[in-house]
Amino acid sequence: MRESSALELPIPSRDARAHHDRVVARIRAEIDRHGGSIPFDRYMELALYDPGLGYYAAGLRKFGSEGDFMTAPEISPLFSRCLARPVGDLLESLGGGTIFEVGAGQGSMAVELLRSLEGQGMTLPPYQILERSAALRAVQRALIDREIPSAPVTWLEDFPPHGFRGVVLANELLDSFPVRLLQVSADASLVELSVGWESGRFTWQRAAHERDEDRDAVRRIERDLAQPFPPGYLVELGPSRAAWVREVIERLEAGVVLLFDYGYPRREHYHPQRGHGTLLCYYRHRVHSDPLILAGLQDITAHVEFTSLAEAARAAGAEVVGFTTQASFLLSSGLAEMMPNDPPGTPAYLAASQQVKQLTLPGQMGDLVKVMALARGFDPPLTGFSGLDLRARLGLQR
Fold this sequence. Notes:
The chain is an alpha/beta fold. 36% of the residues lie in helices and 22% in strands.
């Protein structure tokens, strides 16, 4: 595992440090109860989602220029305007339906998406949001009430009931789901990375025991890769992501689940060059690789392995009807047509051009973020996937 001991990171404020200390105390208590260490996925869950304390559960500012990172809807309203085209087409094909967004950030995507649908002449559909953070729910509600008060938006505590019809949206959600970390030993056995507490800080520990389901998952991946992982390789497993997809699909009667996230198909995700894993942390727009510092103050992410999501969706009765890059999705949804009419060189045009670059350039969000469409009870084609088709790279068995 990569260590990052000399990071040039901003110093937390007094209030932020006090919050960090509370999170540390909570995680240390969990470590003590479990004999001196906890699996990394449990550490990540507590650091991000522990009620009232975790990064996403507390009232800290996370999104935007004053937060820790920017998601596509915050970078530019053009993202949500493009998204409105496939969403509108889908709802029209279904004869109506509901939009269900999971993890809505500040509410920017909901506002611009509904505004764009209204501009297309549609009656605003019901819009449901599942948000675990009470603080973020308050931010979302305030923005929506101010910008589009007539919108039929409601907040749910759980997935929609079985029989849901419409579209499910998840933008940069699954990369923050906890992952398990397993390192390959010289004898090809697996060691689970866990987190302990020593000398006043969280530390990496290695446990010889391994869960049967994890070992089986690693061996299945090796069979798909047609080769074993080399000694020292760090394997990230995200079973909670696949479980989330299965749960959503099982409740979907007719419609599409649209997933936007950083990640790769299986063969690319477990590439030899990614032997250290894909864990990254975001703190006040600085990116680093040490998840054991700034607990409760920073986001912790790991890239999504999309093949496992596709397999889970298929097992639950859905089909993968689209898999492409964010750039291809946006361009196929009319991004070029949505550029402002201002003359080139004007401030508005230059600002929009910069936003488009962030959303679409290779090596940035353009190809690092993938878009997957999972359909049940709905026949393609789906707007947004007429360009680059990456489904063959998922390696799914016919």
